[in-house]
Amino acid sequence: MYYCYLDALITKHWATPQQEFFLTVALDPKWNPNGPHLVYVGWSNVAQLEIVNQYFKTHQPSANNSLPGWQLQNISWKNPQYFMISLKGIGTIGFGCDRYKERPVTSHPVGS
């Protein structure tokens, strides 16, 4: 992974009919001092995509939370085709995929 996702904030998530899953993530400048503020993170051919998408729909950010999204603990991988997304105070979901990609936010999101 190119960026550090410790203490980052997920501001949006979406899935595509092509079995892709994407996040828009606001990076913590403490861990990414020279990085962009926002990045797109995406996975292709996600195994059990419905479960991953439902995880985010079920675990909405708390109304008591002053942050406008899900607080990331981290995004990590066990191997190049198995990733884990850990949300602070919620837990971790793991999933298999064929490919991982990340890039700074520009005018057009990947996968949309």
Helix and strand arrangement:
Blueprint lengths: L8 E7 L5 E6 L11 E7 L4 H10 L11 E10 L2 E6 L3 E6 L2 E6 L8
Antiparallel strand pairs: 1-2, 1-4, 2-3, 3-7, 4-5, 5-6
Describe the overall structure.
With 112 residues, this protein is mainly beta. The protein has one domain. The chain has one helix spanning 49-58; strands at residues 9-15, 21-26, 38-44, 70-79, 82-87, 91-96, 99-104. A seven-stranded antiparallel β-sheet has the order 6-5-4-1-2-3-7. The mean pLDDT is 86.
Q: Distance between termini?
A: 22 Å
Average pLDDT, rounded to a whole number, is 86
Instruction: Report the portion of residues in β strands.
Output: 35-45%
Total E-strand runs: 7
H/E topology pattern: EEEHEEEE
Q: In what order do the strands lie side by side in the largest sheet?
A: 6-5-4-1-2-3-7
Tally of helical segments:
1
Tell me the count of domains. 1
Outline the biggest β-sheet.
7 strands, antiparallel
- The low-pLDDT segments are none
Structural class: mainly beta
Helix content bin: under 10%
- Identify the overall geometry: globular
Features:
globular; single chain; 112 residues; mainly beta; seven-stranded antiparallel sheet; 1 helix
Summarize this structure briefly.
The protein is mainly beta and 112 residues long.
